[in-house]
C-alpha cells in the first residue's frame, strides 16, 4: 500500500495524484470515493452546532460537505471513468449513509448524502453499457479513531471495523456479476451475509435498515 497526500478540494492536487497513479499502475479496477468534510468544528463558541435546524447551521458546513464530499467524488470519478471504460470493467464505490433517506443529524448532511446516492444512480446509468459498476455503500457504526474517542458514550456491540468496509468492497469487486448491483445502495453488513465474510474479530454485524437508524 502506498499513501499519496492529496487535498481533494484542490483540483491541481487531485490531477497530480491521479497522474502519478496512472504512471505506476497498468489499470484501475476499483475506485472508492470516501472523501468527506463537515465534521470539523462541531463546537462553535461552546455551542454544539451539528444537530441544529438548517437556519441555525453555519454555512461553511454545507460548503465543506459538498466541496470535500460530493464534488470530490464527482471529480475523481471523472478522471477514473475513461480508464475503466477502456478496460471494459471496473467498480466505483461511493461511501454514503442512511441520512440520504431519513433525517439524521441535520439537513445539510442529508442533502449531501442524497446527492451522493443520486450521483451513484446517474453514473451507473452512463457507465453500465461499458461494463463498469457503481454503488453507494452504507457502512454501519465504524470504529474510526473519532468514534473510539467517544466510545464510552456509544453502544459498540454492533459496530464494524474499518477493515470490514474494505472486505465488503473486495467481495463486490470479485463478483463476476457485480453489475447486478450497479446504481443501487448496498449495506456492508448485508453484503457480508451475501458473500460470506466476517469482520476482523470473526463477528457478523447485523445489517441496519432504515427503521433502525
Helix count equals: 6
- Proportion in helices: 40-55%
Give the structural class. alpha/beta
Q: Total domains, how many?
A: 1
CATH superfamily: NAD(P)-binding Rossmann-like Domain
What is the makeup of the main sheet? Answer: 4 strands, parallel
Distance between the termini: 34 Å
Query: What string, H for helix and E for strand, traces the elements in order?
Result: HEEEHEHEHHEH
Shape, please?
A: globular
CATH level-3 fold name: Rossmann fold
Strands, count = 6
CATH architecture name: 3-Layer(aba) Sandwich
Q: Calculate the mean pLDDT score and round it.
A: 94
CATH class: Alpha Beta
**Share of β-strand residues:** 5-15%
Give the radius of gyration: 18 Å
Provide the spatial order of strands within the biggest beta sheet: 1-4-5-6
What does this structure look like?
- By secondary structure, this protein is α/β, with parallel strands linked by helices.
- The protein has a single domain (25-195), classed as NAD(P)-binding Rossmann-like Domain (Rossmann fold, 3-Layer(aba) Sandwich), CATH 3.40.50.
- It contains 6 helices and 6 strands.
- Strands 1-4-5-6 form a 4-stranded parallel β-sheet, sandwiched between helices.
- The radius of gyration is 18 Å and the shape is globular.
- The two termini are 34 Å apart.
- 30% of the residues are buried.
- The mean pLDDT is 94.
Amino acid at each position: 500500500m502506498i499513501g499519496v497526500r492529496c487535498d481533494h478540494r484542490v483540483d491541481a492536487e487531485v490531477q497530480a495524484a491521479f497522474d502519478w497513479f496512472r504512471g505506476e499502475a497498468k489499470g484501475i479496477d476499483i475506485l472508492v470515493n470516501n472523501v468527506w468534510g463537515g465534521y470539523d468544528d462541531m463546537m462553535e463558541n461552546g455551542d454544539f452546532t451539528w444537530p441544529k435546524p438548517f437556519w441555525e447551521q453555519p454555512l461553511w458546513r454545507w460548503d465543506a460537505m459538498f466541496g470535500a464530499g460530493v464534488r470530490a467524488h464527482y471529480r475523481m470519478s471523472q478522471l477514473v471513468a475513461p480508464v475503466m471504460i477502456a478496460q471494459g470493467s471496473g467498480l466505483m464505490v461511493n461511501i454514503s449513509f442512511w441520512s440520504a433517506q431519513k433525517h439524521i443529524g441535520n439537513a445539510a448532511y442529508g442533502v449531501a448524502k442524497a446527492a451522493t446516492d443520486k450521483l451513484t444512480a446517474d453514473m451507473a446509468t452512463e457507465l453500465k453499457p461499458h461494463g463498469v459498476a457503481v454503488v453507494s455503500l452504507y457502512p454501519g457504526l465504524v470504529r474510526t479513531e473519532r468514534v473510539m474517542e467517544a466510545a464510552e458514550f456509544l453502544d459498540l456491540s454492533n459496530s464494524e471495523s474499518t477493515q470490514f468496509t474494505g472486505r465488503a468492497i473486495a467481495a463486490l469487486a470479485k463478483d463476476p456479476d457485480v453489475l447486478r448491483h450497479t446504481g443501487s445502495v448496498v449495506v456492508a453488513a448485508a453484503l457480508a451475509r451475501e458473500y460470506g465474510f466476517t469482520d476482523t474479530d470473526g463477528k457478523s454485524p447485523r445489517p441496519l435498515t432504515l427503521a433502525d437508524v
